[in-house]
Amino acid sequence: MNVRRSAAVLAAVAAIGAAAAPAALADEASPSPSVALPSGLYGTSDPTYDGVWRQSLALLAQDTVGVKPATKAVDWLVGQQCANGAFAAYRADTGKACDAKLMVDTNSTAAAVQALAALGGHGAETGKAVAWLKSVQNEDGGWGYAAGGASDANSTSVVVGALVAAGEKPAEVVKVGKSPYDALLKLSLPCDGDGAGAFAYQPDKKGKLAANADATAAGVIGALGKGLVAKPGGEAGASKKAESCTDSGTLTPEQAAANGASYLAHAVEKDGYLKSALAGAADQPDYGNTADAVVALAAQGGAEQAQKPLKWLERNSADWAKQNGPAAYAQLIFAAHATGTAADDFGGGDLVSLLNETGPAPQHTPQQKGAKDVSTQVNSGYGVYWIVGVGLVAGIGIGFLLSGRNKNQQQL
């Protein structure tokens, strides 16, 4: 993404035959931006591959905790939109019209829709963006990262979130009779094999599905018809323990979500975190995907179900968030929100203030509890960078949207 933005971007680039390009990496992974940073942008790293994504998550997280963002921060995001409604990862020169060479994508567009819809007053922009998303829906009902690319669980799920945020009913957004839920169900693994109940990112070349923790966290949220910001499941606060994977007749989106949550619960049961699937990072925690798993578990079965990975994040995520910037802080805020945890006292740290400090000063910030700087938390010792993609450096665990996506769908 800057969160979940590595293998998926590389796959999309390869799919369209473009020259090799790095994925959108962790926010602080590129210490020397190759472009001048706009004053309204969150984060200090080169935004070429993740600008709209990290800006959207930052604004959405601020809105979630009652912060009113700076006008220039919102204006920057709005200004990134192309005339056809789509968003690219980053447009350095917004005075120039988008052309065929600009790689717009579903993930940036869907994230921007969720942020702008939450902020309100941007019906024209979100309407155009949703119209574009509908125009590039695949015949299986889903979406790939790039328009026309094969559907994947992550992209389809983030678009579902955008549709819901814009007041659409995903089940009624169909192409050749197929909805986004049909696409997600095709990526749900059966209960009688490896990775029981998980979601695959995409089928491999032979059509085989392999469990992918990042895709599963995304798939659970998408199958529930929710977005990046999700409340605990049950609406009335009831908590349901993740049960074993269940095949009972025709698979429904709700059952697929429950099966996916069961897979995630078992995956974090031992250590409290998901492991990274990135090359060279064997047995290392994936912080971003763990945060996404917290949201998915809480959204499906209630806050109690997500307590183990939540507590692990509270103890260990400080260095990762500091290194990875606004999108990482946003993910942690989403995890706190989904579990009813105070974001301004997350493991002793104030995520809200730390997020605000990565961009222009907000117009309004609710009174906080004055928690200690999150950098004073106990850290896990895993705050290191690993070589990925075409040789650039990324922080471990960039989650739900794209960061942990592995083109080969390595199993957890």
TrEMBL record:
Signal sequence interval, chain numbering: 1-26
Keyword Transmembrane: yes
Keywords: Membrane, Signal, Transferase, Transmembrane, Transmembrane helix
GO molecular function terms listed in the Swiss-Prot or TrEMBL record: transferase activity
Keyword Transmembrane on entry: yes
Parts of the chain that traverse the membrane: 382-402
Gene3D superfamilies: 1.50.10.20
Protein name per Swiss-Prot or TrEMBL: Prenyltransferase and squalene oxidase repeat protein
Organism: Streptomyces jeddahensis
